[in-house]
Amino acid sequence: MNSQLGYVLGGIFVLLGLYVWFAGPHSLLWGIVLIVLGAYFAYSLRLKRKAG
Question: Membrane spanning segments where (predicted)?
Fold first, then answer.
């Protein structure tokens, strides 16, 4: 997986998380989970690129 794809996936997850967060009163937890997943994708790929 290249780093740009990781950033795109991370961005999609973060945007989905924000959308879910604001879409419904019961989806705060899902929004947080998606945002964390997106941040994890982007951050882990950044670490891999630094190590490589």
Answer: 5-22, 28-45
